[in-house]
């Protein structure tokens, strides 16, 4: 059975960014590159043939009639984008898989961005599932169910805590690093059934469709990074990206990602205009408490009532950390928590820390300089130095 059997089996923000780029910058050429950031139990190179076979299958898939109808039912998805998807098919010659001398995998996707940006989540899900098939034992999923039940009990215990100004709201952000597709489905189904008052949705469009829950997501770093290559002054790329988003969605999908070049530089661009138009902000690197305090201070400085805005936390969370952040910030502002690996790959095995990031667009390097220096991914040190200079970002201390 192939791992990916539906083109909806991906994160919602792939579709929302895809539509925005198709409408506004369809000519953009892009390069995406895979990386594994942690040690593996065995060389990923052993998966080369299986990964290639899975990609062959992925490139045979088309969107089905009912999938297109579901996408069309989302009010922010436009009819011409659905028509594009009706014709869409991944092109196998746009993605290449090779082994590295160190025993790893080199995976790159090159081509028109609107034809290659969708590979990312599928590639990561494929590698995860193939990798863990070799490590799974008869007891693995039993351990996963035990840990999932413990999370459910933690959530039920919230009934006995003092009521805060804003409720705890949890979503599944675990598509890209899931243990497997069946386990992902079991986790989301179980949470939907057992704790619907706290579990509010999933980034997986396929599971949202099948389970009748809310698909969640807005933008990722690749969207903002793309604007580093789109002809605007580099200092203005974040403002250009946010402005295009506002014009595309006109009030929908109003959570902005803050750490493409760090929270400080972001807030310099996130003026009263954007702060009023966007519903809130998403945290994805750096200390979450410091980040949240900066966000609250920024809203207050702009004389915006924080209770009308939302902070979404999504950086390597587990349930304990999410609840700690909720107790701290819920008296002041609306909150959402997207948990990924620690929901969909918490089975007792060491998860992979894998990414597939945009590294070049229109023939030039692009980069993010997040609030966690280890997340930077760019092989052009000259460009990184220039980007730091433009935004007055100090070099990281090694």
TrEMBL record:
Involved pathway(s): Cofactor biosynthesis; NAD(+) biosynthesis; nicotinate D-ribonucleotide from nicotinate: step 1/1
Modification(s) after translation: Transiently phosphorylated on a His residue during the reaction cycle. Phosphorylation strongly increases the affinity for substrates and increases the rate of nicotinate D-ribonucleotide production. Dephosphorylation regenerates the low-affinity form of the enzyme, leading to product release.
Catalytic activity: 5-phospho-alpha-D-ribose 1-diphosphate + nicotinate + ATP + H2O = nicotinate beta-D-ribonucleotide + ADP + phosphate + diphosphate
Domain Nicotinate phosphoribosyltransferase N-terminal per the UniProt entry, residue ranges: 8-128
Modified-residue entries (Phosphohistidine), positions: 221
EC number: 6.3.4.21
Single GO term (MF): nicotinate phosphoribosyltransferase activity
Keyword list, A-Z: Glycosyltransferase, Ligase, Phosphoprotein, Pyridine nucleotide biosynthesis, Transferase
Classification via Pfam families: NAPRTase (PF04095), NAPRTase_N (PF17767)
Domain of life where this protein originates: Bacteria
KW Transferase (keyword) present: yes
Keyword rRNA-binding attached: no
InterPro entries, per database record: N/Namide_PRibTrfase (IPR041525), NAPRTase_N (IPR040727), Nic_PRibTrfase (IPR006406), Nic_PRibTrfase-Fam (IPR007229), Nicotinate_pribotase-like_C (IPR036068)
EC class name: ligase
Domain Nicotinate/nicotinamide phosphoribosyltransferase residues, every copy: 168-393
Family: Belongs to the NAPRTase family.
Task of the protein: Catalyzes the synthesis of beta-nicotinate D-ribonucleotide from nicotinate and 5-phospho-D-ribose 1-phosphate at the expense of ATP.
Listed name of the protein: Nicotinate phosphoribosyltransferase
Organism in which the protein naturally occurs: Comamonas avium
